[in-house]
Amino acid sequence: MFYCVFMRKPTNIQTLYIDFDSFFASVEQQLRPHLRNKPMGVLPLESQYSGFIAVSREAKLLGIKRGVRLVDVHETWPDFPAVVARHDVYIQVHQKILATMETVLPVHKVWSIDEVECRLMGRERDNWQDIAMQVRNALAQTIGPYITPSIGFAANQLLAKIAAEMDKPNGLVCLHPRDMPKAIHNIEISDIPGIGKRMGKRLEKAGVMTMPSLLRLSGKQMRGLWGSVEGERLWAGLHGYAVEKPATKRGMFGHGRILSPDWRNRSGVRNCARLLLVKAARRLRRENYAAMRLSVSVGFQDRDRLSRECNLYPPAFDDQTLLCSLERLLSALWETAPPAQPFKTSICLSSIVPLQTRTEDLLELESEYIMKILQNVDTGDVAVAMKNATAEDMEKITSSMSQRASDRFNEEFEMLNKVKIKDIEAAQRKMLEVAQKLMEEGSIERDMDES
Hints:
Blueprint: H1 2-6, E1 15-20, H2 23-31, E2 41-43, E3 54-55, H3 57-61, H4 70-76, E4 82-84, H5 87-102, E5 107-112, E6 115-119, H6 128-142, E7 149-154, H7 157-164, E8 172-174, H8 197-205, H9 211-215, H10 219-226, H11 229-238, E9 252-258, H12 266-286, E10 289-300, E11 305-316, H13 319-334, E12 342-354, H14 367-375, H15 379-385, H16 391-398, H17 403-415, H18 421-441
Parallel strand pairs: 2-4, 7-8
Antiparallel strand pairs: 1-6, 1-7, 2-3, 5-6, 9-12, 10-11, 10-12
Helix pairs in contact: 5-6, 10-11, 12-13, 15-17, 15-18
């Protein structure tokens, strides 16, 4: 067994995991005193037909869950308060939380806007209760007492996350290796991260319906049930091995939403798509990416679905550029739209590139530096890289070439027909790699990370 042979199995606590309780709702209660200690919810947009994306702990006690529509809640509680989400505010609070956490323990990894992991060293592993108290006090003083953390300690990230969710809200649970695996025998299989409804049904079909029965499986059996190494990785995590989940490569940022009845028209589609795009663009910028492609899709009541997409050059990350592109896509989409009522919409920012490796950064260099780069890149690759460039950027490139090189570039460029976006990206990467090499050699003095 790979994990048994090669992986370390800690005998003490290694990880602290924090999962903030009803984060969006708690932030609103902290910042709006009139909502404190009351049932309330947070909506994605201002419509009574929208479903809540978060509800307060007081609302949960009434049986109101995330996803329930405001109009349905108002049938029983006519004065139930609801506010529209303020994602910019939540991000600001999130950043403040990270800064506060760093005063107690270094943050090892941010898993989401309301989930944080820290690693424990030396004596910290024995003083976990004191550390939990320090974390709570620091957050209460800096962020506020209504934004409460549920804290879990365990030998690895998976078990610490499970511990953080075992006694919500404002919980504190330690799953010490000496108490495992009995300490998790009574939790539901559906409470294990990575086991959704579909996987739950697969396990049930295999006769695995309780935690003890799941823990009795071997790593090989779990790999077979999952159909991938993820099953074996989950087995290792549940059995207390020090599992590091491999980093995933970000491929896109997207959001979709079923339209509330009063938004099921062209104006509603436009407003909803704009909100979704701004939200996706905010995430894009926060993770230091730019997008080379934007797509929008609209589903209709007759189950028909229309999509439009466009390439973005230079790669875009600002709201103005993206929203202008969205307007053009929607105009083209409505030209062939069916008479049926729109039912849902989604947007997607894809073909993403790190902000520090955008090709237009090269064009901000001095002409002599651009010339050095072009001398080390095949003319055909330059032509492909500039396929979707603006006239201004094309001028920067050709003006940095000799007349002979410029003529050859124009000849190559005119021979290009349709070029796949992946080929444009590959050609741009070649230019960027050459530029980076020249910088390392000192031939180019400007740092490309400068803005």
